[in-house]
Amino acid sequence: MKWLKWFxxxxxxxVLGCSVSSISPINVYSxxxxxxxxxxxxxxxxxxxxxxxxxxxxxxxxxxxxxDIRTTSDDVIICMHDKDATRLAPTTPDSLxxxxxxEMTLEVAQSxxxxxxxxxxxxxxxxxxxxxxxxxxxxxxxxxxxxxKIDLDRLAxxxxxxxxxxQIIFTTKHHDLIMDWHARIxxxxxxxxxxxxxxxxxxxxxxxxxxxxxxxxxxxxxxKYAELSSGLPFVPAPDYLEARLKEVSARGILFxxxxxxxxxxxxxxxxMDLGIRSFATDYPIMTVDLYQEFMAK
Length: 297
Fold this sequence. Notes:
Blueprint: H1 2-9, H2 25-31, E1 37-39, H3 52-60, E2 64-71, E3 77-79, H4 106-109, H5 128-135, E4 143-147, H6 152-161, E5 168-172, H7 175-184, E6 189-194, H8 198-210, E7 218-223, H9 238-249, E8 254-259, H10 265-273, E9 279-281, H11 284-295
Parallel strand pairs: 1-2, 1-9, 2-4, 4-5, 5-6, 6-7, 7-8
Antiparallel strand pairs: 2-3
Helix pairs in contact: 1-2, 10-11
């Protein structure tokens, strides 16, 4: 397959005077025949968010789920994006629906149905340990762990206990946390995501340049609809994305975009025409189909 050939070649551009990441996500994924596509919140908008069933289905597609992690009141790490049950478990009793998950015990949190709201079967909130158990012995199963509020020492110990140092992609918008994580598990992959305005994106880039991109192996920018009057297909503008792609690729860092609430196939094709080869998406089936079609040309 052509996309595997592209993976094996990698993006090996070296610029004198700047550091280059010693860990290439391109090579790591290539070795396991995994495409560089992240299913946002586990499976995008088609499947329940952050459930074990969703993660397994996403792995079977040959792509990578994202898991959001936080802790229950009895100190168990669970996979959950939201602070409370309002959106994802609307059938929750009134006495619990606004209670933060950090104030629930694991037993109470796992009693909630987080699957039916998407029209599917009843599903429950998994512990991170249960997810790790399904990953152990399956080197092709990678996962983005989007940090919420977890003790890093404890998380690192758990990752090491299951031998998943090279399968975890530590994910956050805070570069200092990535540097802290890198100090604990240097061989781990990581993702720094940047959203918001162009002004904010530039502010973050200025900061990470000053720290020489330390510990970052993937960098993600959120792409959104542009104002109709701008004449642009999306923002940040194509020329800006091309410049950032060139800058981070020169350091061996994988450049990823998240087309935010953008379902049009043409958007993804335009982004791939710019040279972008990694996506986070709420529409993983469409993205996989477009990616494979594009790479087969």
